[in-house]
Amino acid sequence: MPHFSAYDGTDLAYRTVGDGPPLICLPGGPMTDSAYLDELGGLSAHRQLILLDLRGTGRSGIPRDPATYRCDRLVDDVEALREHLGLEHIDLLAHSAGANLAALYAARHPQRIGRMALITPSVFAVGIEVTAEMRLRGARRHSHQPWFAPAYAALQAIQAGRMTPENWDAIEPFSHGSWDAAVQARKEAEDALRNNEAAAVYGSGGAYDPPATRAALETFDRPVLLLAGKSDLGAMPEVVEQYAELFQDPRLVVQRRAGHFPWRDDPAAFTAEVVQFLG
Hints:
The protein has helices spanning 71-85, 98-108, 132-139, 148-159, 165-170, 181-191, 196-202, 210-218, 237-244, 262-265, 267-278; strands spanning 3-5, 11-17, 22-26, 48-53, 90-95, 113-119, 224-229, 250-255. By secondary structure, it is α/β, with parallel strands linked by helices. Helix 1 (71-85) packs across helix 2 and helix 2 packs across helix 8 (210-218).
């Protein structure tokens, strides 16, 4: 597994899979080992995926200063990777919470990006408001599912302030296109890939300046794909649509039969959309 040194000497690792032009991939979680991205539903048949393990995750080293887990501080790690690879410009794909990092990188280094794909993106970096009623309305799209009643009750409890681990676990089905035994087992295994200490710092105070980021993205003229899963409660299509409006050259795609992990729910549809966008 290749390694390189970050600006502060932290040893960072990345995995390469596939052939073709390089595509740097930023994981979500936040702060989850990039292994969960696997080969992004077969995207590796079209691009060489460069899957970065953010500091403190996967094979990357633990920094001396835990404050460097903050999202805005991680921008320098992405830039260090670009320099390590010797690339003048990069195509960038980011999933979920990783989209916050991608947005901050685009705001700071717009000239370094060729194309950017934001997959079921988190919107904290740009300050789009998602109300409780929006979440409940999105959740009710799943009312036909056998797991709906307890999951919906847990969501209401969380919105009332009862943010217990049990309630968070109960709403997990809202993130997936299906919720069978295999998906549940994979979710349990992937929970162990997350650095919870780092995750707590990732979006902490000072990480985001939404007005400044929005202003920077409004002048960002590179093509941007924003892909939402139709059944996703985390990055609801109507929220991702608002995100798309911030860019000069956006392409909004709502993938049917997909939740928060669209490369798993419908790999062929996901790969087709991303390959078409990247060209």
